[in-house]
Hints:
Blueprint: E1 2-7, H1 12-25, E2 30-34, E3 39-43, H2 48-57, E4 61-67
Helix pairs in contact: 1-2
Amino acid sequence: MIEFQVEGMSCQHCVAAVTKAVRALDANARVQIELENGLVRIESKEAADRLGAAIGEAGYTVKGAAPRAPGGA
């Protein structure tokens, strides 16, 4: 699982846009978004740089990415 810090998300439309961008790369990706913290967690077969680029192309600013172990450890 990869965790991104994303700026510019403020509503459910943003959640849908980010999810759509990620799933355009990997239709089976699992996407979890915390609007209040600007966190996007993605479980996908795609590389983190490609996922981050897709989020950026959707109009959001990706500030960083970090791998996370399953279960949040």
